[in-house]
Amino acid sequence: MLAKRIIPCLDVDHGRVKKGVNFVNLQDVGDPTEIAAAYQKQGADELVFLDITATNEKRKAIVETIEQVASQVFMPLTVGGGIHSVDDMQQLLKAGADKTAVNSAAVSNPRLITEGAEKFGAQCVVLAIDAKWNPDSQQYDVYVNGGRKRTNLDAIKWAQRGVALGAGELLVTSMDKDGTKSGYDIELYKQLTKAVNVPVIASGGCGKLADFVEVFDQADVDGALAASVFHFGELTISDVKNDLRKDGVIVR
Amino acid sequence: MMIIIDYDTGNTRNVKNALDFLGVENRLSADPAEILNADGLILPGVGAFKKAMDSLNERGLVPVIKQAANAGIPMLGICLGMQILFDKSYEFGESTGLGLIAGEVVPIPDNLGVKVPHMGWNQNRSQQADPLADEFNNQFSYFVHSYYVKTAPENILSAVNYGIQIPSIVRKDNVIGFQFHPEKSGEVGLNGLSKFKEMVENADYSRN
């Protein structure tokens, strides 16, 4: 059966990997190809590149970054950030990406999901959702524009609609947990994995080994994404996999 | 020279990247003379069966690939490139494949309690002793597909469990297929491509 995926996320700004905590305070951490190759060696199952400047910048830089990474690193590559059209998707897939993640643009133009899925296949279209718990309405709100703007969408319903439109996978970040290192948002992923029948990747909040075990044990997610714990060497992918293996989770 | 058959399909560039990375001399080509003179052939493929066959037909490559296979040139089909090695597929109606290995391509049933497409890392189990299958035995490789191949056990070198047994490596003489993407399967995938290169170098065939 399929192995659960451990997925480092690389935030890329002008061809350099950065990680912002709570979407701010950028800190330069390195060259995307070198970091990607190191993760391949550690046993990462997939890499997510988030072009954090894409919304206001040209796309050329990220396309070049993906071309370079894809010439040295041989595992599935997902790219997100500022993808607004089928042409944007095509450029990235041609550069060597396997999947493209759409977020804000899919909220304003849901047809983008369908057009991408029809042209490249559902497996190439990942719907990325930034979700935040709303204690007043008792639901998860969808945020866009890098977490800066709240929408009226309910994250669980939006996830279901995205899958119906053609999304082949969901990459869902808990804004409540992101940057806190207090563990994944188990309740969010429980609800999501019950609501849809496509792979769900959990993102946001990972700080220690036990967080991975918890999210795979308690919510039926297919992968777990993390950034800073890996970038700064607090954990290695093999640490995480050894720990999961001990717990009986199937990993590569 | 390893020739990657160029027929306007998706994963060609990543296959070329992997061969370049391994230092395997290779070229993309749709030229019949180059294909028939190749030391080894790679048939990539992503997308739909019928579209891939139409694309090969438009380029007049179907008889060329058959001739190359019959001449004993080692040939590796990857993902959809493996599926079109077989007789026919039921994807979007029935369509005819290259017929180099007996068998057909059918949908992964949707009542197995597994998600379709079969997308992710799955563990290969050798079904027969073979240098290529040995390279992948108990190792995970990366799959993305919604259809799978039904063929006689003698053609199946390796399989993965996904509610049903899905053939992951097939072989009939010099014609080989990987259902997974070696170019996306990390070190294990690269090792498999190296093994194919070794096979090409040691191939004992005559060109008539």
From TrEMBL, chain B:
Its EC number is 4.3.2.10, 3.5.1.2. One of its GO terms (molecular function) is glutaminase activity. The active site is at C79, H181, E183. Residues 4-187 form the Glutamine amidotransferase domain. It catalyses: L-glutamine + H2O = L-glutamate + NH4(+); 5-[(5-phospho-1-deoxy-D-ribulos-1-ylimino)methylamino]-1-(5-phospho-beta-D-ribosyl)imidazole-4-carboxamide + L-glutamine = D-erythro-1-(imidazol-4-yl)glycerol 3-phosphate + 5-amino-1-(5-phospho-beta-D-ribosyl)imidazole-4-carboxamide + L-glutamate + H(+). GO terms for cellular component: cytoplasm. It is found in: Cytoplasm. One of its GO terms (biological process) is L-histidine biosynthetic process. The keyword Transcription does not apply. Heterodimer of HisH and HisF. IGPS catalyzes the conversion of PRFAR and glutamine to IGP, AICAR and glutamate. The HisH subunit catalyzes the hydrolysis of glutamine to glutamate and ammonia as part of the synthesis of IGP and AICAR. The resulting ammonia molecule is channeled to the active site of HisF. This is Imidazole glycerol phosphate synthase subunit HisH.
